[in-house]
Write a structure and sequence with these properties.
The complex is a heterodimer of chains A (about 375) and B (about 850).
Chain A (H helix, E strand, L loop, with lengths): L17 H17 L3 H12 L4 H8 L5 H40 L18 H15 L3 E2 L5 E3 H4 L10 H5 L4 E3 L5 E6 L5 H9 L4 E10 L11 E11 L4 H16 L5 E8 L2 E10 L23 E10 L1 H6 L8 E8 H9 L4 H6 L2 H5 L6
Chain B lengths: L1 E3 H4 L11 H11 L2 E8 L7 E12 L6 E7 L10 E5 L9 E5 L4 E2 L3 E2 L2 E4 L2 E4 L1 E2 L2 H4 L10 E2 L10 H5 L3 E7 L10 H12 L21 E3 L5 E10 L9 H9 L7 H13 L3 E5 L7 E5 L5 E3 L5 E3 L5 E5 L2 E5 L3 E2 L12 E8 L1 H10 L5 H8 L6 H16 L2 E10 L7 E4 L2 H6 L5 H10 L3 E5 L2 E5 L10 H12 L19 H15 L3 E2 L5 E2 L1 H6 L24 E2 L4 H13 L5 E8 L22 H10 L5 E8 L1 E3 L8 E2 L2 H14 L4 E5 L5 E11 L9 E6 L1 H7 L6 E6 H7 L14 E10 L4 H12 L3 E10 L8 E10 L8 H19 L2 E2 L2
Parallel strand pairs in B: 14-17, 28-31
Antiparallel strand pairs in B: 1-13, 2-13, 3-4, 3-6, 4-5, 6-11, 6-12, 7-8, 9-10, 15-23, 15-24, 16-23, 17-20, 18-19, 20-21, 21-22, 25-27, 26-27, 29-30, 31-32, 32-38, 33-34, 35-36, 36-37, 37-38, 39-41, 39-42, 40-41
Helix pairs in contact in B: 2-5, 6-7, 7-10, 8-9, 12-13, 14-18, 21-22
Classes of the chains: A alpha+beta (about 375), B alpha+beta (about 850).
Chain lengths: ~375, ~850
């Protein structure tokens, strides 16, 4: 608390005169309004709100007033300073906004500039569609089984009921592994993923529900629709009470999930040594749904206006195969199917030529991205 | 098998309105794969009629002989007057019956016939050859029809079967019986539920004997052997038009009447026949296996060294036929043969299949025998053939018949009632099962809960209960099987390894690499181009016995040749900045593997030892990840310069791939083909540096770059993914401290030969457990630090998990780290 001031100077105290305070206030507010930049405003702040500003100086004089006048003068000066401070704050905000707006405009760029500095890669569509196909069965509870590509003839043929001299064995155009001194090796490049059926039955506890995606080999020259190296997705179920109806059901689920709800499937009798009965499976064309059949005005390229697309072979596992794999045929039965992955990619995604899937041209692969 | 529908209709009472396409659909649903339905002659229209040549006038003064004929075409020309036609052929005479295309007719290929002036006469039509009509291949001139064929004016197109439908059926190996009109007709009858007339059901003599002397050495090679002969055959007798037409539609070329008859009966009944010129045979016939050293020149003029497994037909002169596959040249029917002996036999399927494969000789006969022919049809087939030779060639059928029957009756198959339903998932009444089996020719006896089923002689493929189930189900219709989704037990999803493989693929793709799937075939040249040493393990390869390309008989031991060639292909197509990866198997013969993988029994499951023996023979087939990159790794552009792909990208890519599995790689300098000896890293599993490297990465050797035609400084990596997968361990959670980090930068000068990895390892060890991370942020060489030296600048991040480190502590840690580096690598703190 300051001591009472009994000796005051009337000249000095003139600065606290109401008119004078009002003048100083007005000058300050005018200066604030005139300040056109944050720098100018800073100077105005020093001049009118700083420690050496007229009102700050005037404030120091209040103590020199007679006690009765002090409160009055204090209110006047304090009010003016508050008003100036608020005006400064408001102007500061206003000028900052203006500056920001200007800077953001100045900083604008051409966002359409390409920025392909880091090239992107891709996964092969045969890989991704194979995963997609397998995953549908994984979703049904199947597991993925695997096996070697250079395979024993016994697994590839004998155990699958391909009898040694049966035409079915020579039909498959097999790559044989050379034995020592040009003799027989008992080994082949697997002609299908089916040997993994036998391996799965031998390796796993029954019941078995597996799919087998994998590479397979036949001595076909590369052309638009053939390749000596291709991929299959095999399916195998061995369980109690398994029938053709379950096979048809599994394929129906696959087709609807892969190609669309409500698509029909059909089975046609066929022959494979390792299944009996055997069938070829067709699905309704997912593009035209049969509308192109007999309708030359709206031909369908996907199904060649047949209305149906062949997707693979299947059948009830021949009990002879179960026997060779040590499965009790009194108790268990099974079914198997094989789908061509190249073929599926061709009709699913309109690939016209096998060369595209084989040559490794980055333009082809890049078009399919990372997932199917 | 090509099946003319008109011929099929002889044995099946098909509804008149049934179309070939509808028939094809029905046969497909029964399991005969009809590939095409050909409407032959559909483009031939207009009047094509029988005509009788009345007069022939030779026109002279032209470059070639030309005739002007008048031809009686009955009322077919609307006037009944003879038709004047100019003709260049000369193989006919006045009075002959010919085929005439009248004006308005259109012949195959859109060839329209009209009246026109030529050689100074009006020619109102054309006298046709078989080729012009599309009837069959013939270059003998016009067709001269046999006397009595038809009256002039009759519709020749109709009579000659000009328009027909032909089904082309891809017969599966189990359905040998469908390689005949008889077999397809039986299926067609079943499809329509109409009557079937069996063409093999013809009168055959009840007693046989007195035929050409013959013996069969072993019932296991031939279960039935029939010979029938004719004499007085007219070798000049032509094959009648109907038979030529049918042979042509079936894709069989007409040779001579005698040969055509054997082919015709084969198509009709499915039984391959052979005909000899009787005069060329020497003494009794014996059916036996070949002896070592025997030879036979077959009809295709190839002298074949015979194998003791080949079945032969022999006479006193030695081998005369490669049984069931091809006849011998010396006993062939000729254009003077008058006495003909016809053979119909049932040879063992497996022998014929082996002989056909061994001699690389596939014939219409061997195709049928391999698949199994009717074991009881031989007598009927031979009888049918000699009957046709008599009817068409004026021959006399000999009374004597050789019939050696060594067949054993088939054992019936016992099958539980309801088995079919348990296979199909459909309840078939037992009456349905029995009726369907009888429909396909089986004899069925019911004994309580089982059926005793004896399949017919033409169905050797029916041996097991499931074979019978298929017969019932396909005749009941596959379309009637319901779709019931299977109820699998809860699956375990993908294995960890399977998930990792997908993850590494995604990681590499995200890092700019495109996946490729190369063929695994390589040649010595590819390995040479990699500059592999003679004793490099990658030169020990699995070899194919029958490669597609003789230059690439080996299976890859490294992914690099395929990747590099694909990279070159992309560069050649204008993509110079390219990064590729592949994940796939390589193949290494197993050291000490047995010479041959055994063929195990199939009547039981293999024992553990047997399985092990198979695995021991198979090559090791590890899964590798390989990648190659060239050109710009980071592209240049408006933002500034790009960055070329280097050895460092390759090594880092390998590290990142391994890190997908949570596996850390330790990098060491190495010299390893095909990499640049100064820019090659060997990659080891951290903590297992004393084991073999799991891979290599770096820049390729300039000689490899040259040999493959690669862009300069192409970089590559290859790692054994199987070992990475095996080393993957579940990550454990690190402690994440929230106390402030203290950073310390140190620049250390070392000899240029000191690997940065060693300096870093020393710093890590010296810094101890408060070191959170360390990162090399600069490498400097230059005059300031002296020749042969380099400065490595590291940023150390230090942090405790229980307190804020003091300045004294961080300085002490830094000094300890530097001291360790100094001691182990001679590093000096840069002043």
């Amino acid at each position: 608390m300051s001591a009472p001031n009994n000796s005051y100077d009337p000249v000095e105290v003139n600065a606290l005169h109401p008119d004078e305070v009002a003048r100083m206030r007005q000058e300050a507010l005018d200066a604030i309004a005139r300040a056109s930049s944050l720098e100018e405003l800073k100077e105005v702040r020093i001049a009118h709100a700083g420690d050496r500003s007229p009102l700050a100086l005037a404030n120091r004089e209040i103590g020199a007033l007679p006690p009765a006048a002090r409160a009055d003068a204090g209110r006047r000066v304090g009010g003016a300073r508050r008003e100036i401070s608020e005006a400064l704050k408001a102007r500061q905000a206003q000028l900052e906004d203006e500056r920001d707006a200007r800077v953001l405009v100045e900083e604008a760029v051409d966002v359409t500039l390409p920025y392909d500095r880091i090239p992107h890669g891709s996964r092969h569509p045969l890989t991704t569609i194979g995963e997609r196909m397998a995953d549908i069965f994984v979703g049904m509870g199947f597991e993925i089984a695997e096996g070697p590509e250079v395979e024993a003839e016994w697994y590839n043929f004998d155990a699958l009921n391909f009898l040694p001299d049966h035409p079915a064995r020579t039909m498959q155009d097999t790559f044989f592994v050379a034995g020592p001194n040009g003799g027989e090796s008992g080994m082949v490049l697997r002609t299908h993923t089916s040997p993994v059926q036998v391996r799965a039955m031998l390796d796993r506890e029954l019941p078995v529900y597996v799919v087998v995606p994998g590479r397979t080999f036949r001595t076909d020259e590369l052309d638009a629709t053939h390749s000596p190296v291709f991929h299959q997705l095999e399916g195998l179920v061995v369980d109690e009470g398994i029938t053709l109806a379950h096979l048809r059901g599994a394929i129906q689920v696959f087709v609807e999930q892969m190609f669309g709800e409500g698509l029909r499937t059909r089975m046609r009798p066929s022959y494979f040594p390792f299944t009996e009965p055997s069938a070829e499976v067709d699905m309704e064309c997912f593009v035209c749904r049969g509308a192109s059949v007999g309708n030359p005005d709206a031909p369908c390229r996907t199904c060649s206006s047949e209305g149906w697309i062949e997707i693979g072979g299947c059948g009830v596992v021949n009990p002879r195969v179960l026997v060779a794999a040590g499965v009790d045929t009194e108790r268990y039965s099974g079914w198997a199917f094989g789908l061509g992955i190249e073929r599926t990619l061709m009709f699913a995604r309109g690939v016209k030529d096998m060369h595209d899937m084989v040559e490794g041209d980055v333009r082809f692969t890049a078009a399919f991205g990372m997932e199917m | 098998m090509r099946v003319p529908v008109s011929w099929l209709r002889e044995y099946v009472a098909l509804p008149a309105e049934a179309t070939a396409r509808e028939l094809a659909e029905k046969l497909i649903s029964l399991g005969l794969e009809v590939e095409t339905v050909e409407e032959v002659g559909a483009d031939v229209t207009g009047p094509i009629v029988v005509g009788r040549v009345l007069t022939i006038e030779e026109l002279t003064g032209f470059k070639k002989p030309i005739r002007f004929c008048t031809v009686d075409v009955g009322d077919a020309n609307g006037t009944g007057e003879p038709q004047g036609i100019v003709c260049g052929a000369r193989n006919f005479a006045e009075g002959d019956l010919v085929v005439v295309s009248l004006p308005g007719a259109v012949l195959p290929g859109g060839f329209a016939i009209s009246a026109r002036k030529t050689y100074g006469r009006i020619s109102a039509g054309m006298i046709c050859s078989a080729s012009e009509l599309g009837l069959w291949e013939d270059h003998e001139g016009i067709i001269v029809l046999p006397e009595g064929f038809a009256e002039p004016g009759a519709d020749a197109g109709e009579l000659l079967g000009l328009r027909d439908s032909v089904l082309d059926i891809a017969v599966t190996p189990d359905r040998g019986y469908a390689l005949s009109m008889r077999g397809v007709a039986r299926e067609a009858a079943a499809a329509y539920g109409v009557e079937f007339t069996d063409p093999a059901d013809l009168p055959v003599p009840e007693t046989t004997g007195g035929g050409y002397p013959a013996t069969v050495a072993d019932p296991a090679i031939c279960s039935r052997y029939v010979l029938r002969g004719v004499t007085g055959f007219d070798p000049a007798a032509p094959t009648p038009p109907w038979m030529r037409r049918r042979l042509h539609l079936c894709g069989v070329r007409s040779i001579s009447l005698a040969v055509d008859v054997t082919n015709y009966v084969m198509l009709e009944l499915g039984q391959p026949l052979h005909a000899w010129d009787r005069a060329t045979l020497r003494g009794p016939i014996e059916v036996r296996l070949a002896r070592q050293g025997e030879k036979l020149e077959t009809l295709d003029h190839v002298v074949r060294a015979l194998d003791p497994d080949d079945i032969l037909i022999t006479d006193e002169s030695g081998p005369i036929n490669l049984a069931g596959v091809m006849g011998g040249l010396s006993t062939e029917i000729s254009d003077t043969s008058t006495d003909i002996l016809v053979e119909a036999a049932h040879f063992a399927e497996t022998h014929i299949a082996r002989t056909s494969r061994r001699h690389q000789l596939s014939s219409e006969s061997s195709r049928r025998f391999e698949r199994g022919v009717d074991s009881a049809v031989q007598l009927a087939a031979a009888t049918r053939a000699v009957g046709l030779l008599a009817e068409l060639g004026g021959a006399t059928v000999e009374d004597g018949i050789t019939h050696i029957d060594l067949s054993v009756p088939r054992e019936p198959i016992t099958v539980a009632v309801g088995h079919t339903g348990r296979v199909a998932g459909v309840d078939y009444p037992v009456e349905t099962e029995i009726a369907r089996l009888r429909q396909v020719g089986c004899e069925v006896v019911r004994n309580g809960d089982t059926l005793s089923v004896t399949p017919p002689s033409w169905r050797p493929d029916l041996t097991d209960p499931n074979d019978l189930a298929e017969e019932v189900i396909r005749n009941e219709g596959y379309e009637n099987i319901p779709a019931i989704p299977p109820r699998a037990p809860a699956g375990r999803g993908l294995t960890h390894g399977q998930r990792l493989r997908r993850a590494v693929g995604r990681t590499l793709a995200a890092r700019g690499f495109h996946e490729v799937l190369n063929y695994p075939f390589v040649g010595e040249r590819d390995l040479d181009a990699l500059q592999l040493e003679a004793d490099d393990r990658r030169r020990t390869t699995v070899r194919l016995a029958n490669p597609l390309n003789d230059d690439e008989p080996l299976l890859r031991t490294t992914l690099l040749p395929g990747l590099l060639k694909t990279l070159v292909r992309n560069v050649g197509r204008g993509f110079g900045d390219v990064a590729l990866f592949e994940m796939g198997l390589v193949y290494h013969p197993r050291p000490g593997a047995p010479a041959k993988a055994p063929i195990l029994a199939v009547d039981r499951g293999p024992t553990a030892e047997e399985r092990a023996a198979l695995e021991a023979a198979l090559p090791e087939q590890p899964r590798h990840v390989g990648a190659v990159l060239a050109g710009q790794r980071l592209r240049s552009g408006w933002w500034g310069g790009g960055q070329d792909a280097t050895w460092a990208d390759a090594i880092q890519t390998a590290r990142e791939a391994a890190s997908v599995a949570g596996v850390e790689l330790v990098v060491r300098a190495a010299q390893h083909a095909p990499w640049h000896p100064g820019r090659c890293a060997a990659l080891y599993l951290a903590g297992a540096e004393d084991e073999a490297a799991v891979g290599y990465a770096g820049e390729l050797h300039p000689r490899v770059v040259k040999a493959y035609g690669l862009p300069p400084r192409t970089a590559a990596l290859e790692i054994d993914w199987g070992r990475i997968e095996a080393a993957a361990r579940p990550a454990t959670a690190p402690r994440v401290s929230t106390y402030p980090v203290a950073t310390q930068d140190v620049a250390l000068v070392v000899d240029e030969s000191v690997p940065a990895a060693e300096v870093e390892a020393a710093l890590r060890e010296g810094a101890g457990e408060l070191l959170e991370s360390i990162r090399l942020f600069d490498v400097y060489t230059g005059a300031q630090i002296g020749e042969g030296r380099k400065s490595l600048a590291y940023a150390l991040r230090l942090r405790a998990d229980d307190r804020t480190l003091t300045a004294e502590e961080t300085n002490r840690i830094r000094d300890a780290a530097v001291a360790a580096a100094a001691e182990r690598t001679g590093a000096v703190l840069r002043g």
